[in-house]
């Protein structure tokens, strides 16, 4: 029965078809919407124009993307290492918890974007200040999710490990850490786009390279098409980062079991 | 020393039970054990009893009477109030020990480990040699009918299978004493009956001492040599009943016997069920 077979195929391809349709719809809306609502091209250039600009400037956009990617990656990795470490420290030591937790809560509430000018003064106009920005944006969600994960080990399992006489190290390695992983992975997911935002914000304040500078430059020259092209580049960068983290996160499959 | 009536009663029967010798230390001996929680909540009130080696004893009581607390004190997970003590194989319990295996109502399997890896956990915690763990896990998997499920994860198993795996983790230790905290409480009646029979079979082969917490009168009578009945909170032992059903027991003939019916009726009256 060919109709049944094709129905089955469509059902299996739904995860690909549905988002593709949404993208196509959005693209059509963008391409013809501007003309339909009489928007000026410098306000919203049609998608075809943006894509053409993207292609024409592919060399620059790629090299600037690599600069930003490097800042994001370094900042994110530092946030991952630091966040995990601080989360563990606060969890393991009551003194550290008492001393540091209020400070963390306070810092988390701080608009980190306001720190960007200071960071540029401290760490210069080069990539380092952007790495620090990416780090600051990504750091707190990772600390909080690590702490939350470690603190929510099911009590019955904690008691079970006591009953079988497990050492503290074994309890940590085989119970606390694996049961915290789903929450830690959530934190890592949340932190990735924040790291991108941090790096771009840093580039806005003062930089010579990176996608943020392209955005600023395009804006100053009223090149809306280039502005949108660099926004697309930023989205692709964030999307790639998301896919990479998702690939790793898939290994933590025992969420909610 | 334990309160007089309990001690005398147990000493009399212990000589007849599986050749136990009265002079060797009891498997479990509780002396004036009380437990008070913060806020002056008294969970246990001066409990004394003695359980001989290879004896199968159930503790029966209404929910909230402190029977789980009692089991945790025997296991060395909680401390009793000062003035009382529990000795396991002649030694005071201050912390969990390798001779004691405990199975809870919740199966306590780690979802990220296969059944086989879960089985090994307790043995690994006690640094059992790898070769021994290997050999024993194969044996335990076969005994419990879990061999084909060894590489599965807990969430792929039925409740009965999971509880079997939880038992398996303890059996791997070859413990002298098995502490069971309503291990079948969350299972359906059919699975529960089946696991009861399996538990009896294992106990007959291995001859461990078993202390079972339950609120099922029929289960307690069917399995035990003796049933300790606890009062409402604060928990005290209000009866120590010897079960006279013949062994080996099986679900059909044992439950049909007049002794079984009489014991169930007697215990139901004590607990105010009828």
Offer a concise description of the structure.
The complex is a heterodimer of chains A (257) and B (274). Chain A has 257 residues and is mostly helical. Chain A is built from ten helices and no strands.
Explain what this protein looks like in three dimensions.
The complex is a heterodimer of chains A (257) and B (274). Chain A contains 10 helices and no strands. In chain A, α2 packs across α10. The mean pLDDT of chain A is 91. Chain A folds into 2 domains: 1-39; 42-249, MetI-like fold. The two termini of chain A are 39 Å apart. With 257 residues, chain A is mainly α. Chain B is α/β, with parallel strands linked by helices and 274 residues long. Helices cover 38% and strands 21% of the residues of chain B. Chain B has helices spanning 4-16, 67-75, 115-125, 130-143, 159-171, 189-206, 217-223, 251-256, 258-270, and strands at 28-37, 41-51, 56-60, 85-88, 91-92, 100-103, 177-181, 209-214, 226-230, 237-242. In chain B, a hairpin with a 2-residue loop joins β4 and β5 (91-92). In chain B, α3 (115-125) packs across α4 (130-143), α3 packs parallel to α5 and α7 (217-223) crosses α9 (258-270). The longest helix of chain B is centred in the C-terminal third of the chain and has 18 residues, at 189-206. The two termini of chain B are 35 Å apart. Chain A binds chain B through residues 156-157, 159-167, 170, 174-175, 178, 254, 257, and chain B through 75, 77, 95-98, 102, 104, 106, 108, 110-112, 121-122, 124-126, 153-155, 169.
